[in-house]
Amino acid sequence: MEDPTQREQASPEVRQRVQASFDRQGLMAHLGARLSHIGPGRVHVVLPARPEVTQQHGYFHASGTSAIADSAGGYAALTLFPEGSEVLTVEYKINLVAPAVGTHIEAVGTVLKSGRTLTVCRLDVFGVLADGERKLVAAGQQTLIRVDGAEQ
C-alpha cells in the first residue's frame, strides 16, 4: 500500500495553478470533490460519501466515479504543462471493477506519457473505508490535449 507521506509534491506555483483551475470547475464543487494531492504527473481527487452522489443501491454513482477520474487525469497532465497552457480531455475509457463503497472514493490520475500535444494518463479509483482500507473500484485510461493560451 502507498504511504501518503512519501508522495512527491509539485512546486508551490504548480499546486496553486492546478488548485485555481480546479476551483473554477462547477461540477467538482457541485459534487463536493476536492484535491488531496498534487504532484508532478500525479493528482488525487477525493469525493466524500453522501446521498447526493449515490445510485439506487447506495453505491457511489458511476458518473461521480468517472467525473473525478477524468479530473484527476486532466490535472495530472496539467502539472507537467508550462504556465499558460490548459488541458482538455480528448477521450477516456473507464472500467467499473467493483461497487464503489466507503467513506469516500479517491481518484488517482497518473501521467503515462506526456507529449507536446497529447498526453496519456492512467486512471485508478479506490473506495476508502473508515479504517483506511482501499479497494480498487474503477480503472481506465485517458488521452488529453494541451491547449496553449486558453482563456481562463
Keyword list:
6 strands; alpha+beta; 152 residues; 6-stranded antiparallel sheet
Q: Would you mind describing this structure in some detail?
A:
This protein has helices at residues 12-23, 26-31, 62-78; strands at 34-39, 42-48, 85-96, 104-114, 118-128, 134-148. The chain has 152 residues and is α+β, with helices and mostly antiparallel strands. It has a six-stranded antiparallel β-sheet with strand order 1-2-4-5-6-3. Strand 1 and strand 2 (42-48) form a beta hairpin. The model has no long low-confidence stretch (mean pLDDT 94).
What would you say about this model in short?
With 152 residues, the chain is α+β, with helices and mostly antiparallel strands.
N-to-C order of helices and strands? HHEEHEEEE
Look at the helices and sheets and give the structural class: alpha+beta
Number of helices: 3
How is the main sheet built? 6 strands, antiparallel
Task: Please give the alpha-carbon distance between the first and last residues.
Answer: 37 Å
Q: Would you identify the regions where 5 or more consecutive residues have pLDDT less than 50?
A: none
Q: Helix amount, in percent?
A: 10-25%
Mean pLDDT, as a whole number? 94
Percentage beta strand: 35-45%
What does the radius of gyration come to? 15 Å
Q: What's the assembly state of these chains?
A: single chain
What would the principal axes of the Cα set say about the shape? Answer: globular
Counting DSSP E segments of at least 2 residues, the number of strands comes to 6
Strand order of the largest sheet: 1-2-4-5-6-3
